[in-house]
# Entry
Amino acid sequence: ACPPLLARWSDRVGRRRSLGLCCLAYCVEYGLLSVLQSTLGFSLVFIAGGVLASHNVIEGSCIVDATSCTVARSKAFGQLFAALGLAFILGPIIGGELSAIHSSAPFAAAMMLSTGSLLCVAVMPEYLPEQVRRREQSGASVLSTLHAFKHLIQQNYQLRWYVYASALSGMGISAFITVRTIWAHYTFGWQGPHIGRVVATYGATVVF
# Structure
């Protein structure tokens, strides 16, 4: 439920400020995870970080703002997912190897990378013009967003089935992701480095 709210907020205040909040949330989250020893505290921080760090929808909005034709937009989204795939290849491999050194090392490394992202966002251009943001402020609300989405899927047959298919696919992927590390650990006895290498293959499929 949080990505639509963050996207709507970015329509009001601009993309750079919203992405900055997401990057800052990542920095704080990983910093806390690197020092926490409590399972409850770990879980609460992880949930709170997930609420504030849902940046993917804002990245897509930046592409829509910066491109005016379908070809350029498709190419930009392809490049975005290729970059995400490379991150999914390198991140798990590096994180897995760091976990063999110390349990908090992957989180400390993630915090440093998030700090670098925050610095990049600080100097990036603003993709959403100010006059557009003022127009969004005049009538933007969560309720109006829900009504607009409901009207859209009622009027567009293809979009309706796309939403259904995406929801079912997302449920399956989420169910797998939540247990894959535990399953691999108890079934094969894998530790961080082994699991990291396997998860990296997911990134390879995204790039492909």
Notes: Residues 8 and 140 are 8 Å apart (CA to CA).
